[in-house]
Amino acid sequence: MEYDPIKRDLGSVFNRSTMLRKLFYKLLDLLLLRTWHIHRELKAWPKFTSGFAMLDAGSGFGQYSFFIANRNRNCSIKAVDVKEEQIEDCNRFFSTCGLNNVVFEVGDLTKPHATNAYDLVLCVDVMEHILEDVDVFTHFHQSMKPGAMLLISTPSDQGGSNADEHGESFIGEHVRDGYPAAEMKEKLERAGFKKSEILYAYGTPGKIAWKLSMKYPMTMLGWSKVFFVVLPFYYAITYPFSFLLNWIDTNTKHASGTGLIVKAWKEA
Fold first, then answer.
1. What is the pTM (predicted TM-score) of this model?
2. What is the pLDDT of residues 156-183, one digit of tens each?
3. CA separation for the pair 237, 234 (Å, rounded)
4. Is 152 helix (H, G, I), strand (E, B) or coil?
5. Fold designation for 4-204+254-265
6. Is the CB of residue 84 less than 8 Å from the CB of residue 110?
7. Distance between CA 181 and CA 261 in Å, rounded?
8. What number is the average pLDDT over the span 11-38?
9. Any idea what DSSP says for residue 254?
């Protein structure tokens, strides 16, 4: 399935007002298990409540920059994405919200972009779309201050591109099926990261929650936009179960899973 057209349709619906856009962000926070894991790691990061400089690498709709900037007006965020229309849209929305500590720019992560500039680099659901991953990791390392942290969410090789029972990927835009944890660690080391921590996400509870909250609704929307009308009723029934499963997955250490949460630090 091509996921981008559905995301564009969702964006067009929720971009009709500032209130709807904020509601959209809140729904993403509630529904997306990766967001639960990223929020947990951000809140545990010692510098989260202090002033810091951050790169949102592959900012998409801007929901992570919004979450962080709303909670810490002392931070400064540079958010980059390859999609010019999303960058323009996010700059307008954040300006309307008075969040002047975030700037969105068109950027190519495979090219060098800064040196010793950031305390935190956040990269969520991006690396599965980029072939030149070691180049990207190397540029991240170069752009980070000594002691800075890199935080990545990406699929693992255990069905992380959401392959079905027959091995067919649900997400057509992915260039790889997911990372083995050992391969991720080795590539980070090649890029200069001496210290890293790689955790599995989307264990058994998360895989069930993902099907309920994302795969089945996105499949229905892929069939017909008529399902936009059905979605509120669908989530009214299924979301209590998804919420519980997301909580369990986020608060459980998994021996395996279809997602990776990766932390790596530049030597101080």
1. 0.89
2. 999 755 544 333 444 456 778 899 999 9
3. 6
4. strand
5. Rossmann fold (3.40.50)
6. no
7. 10
8. 87
9. B
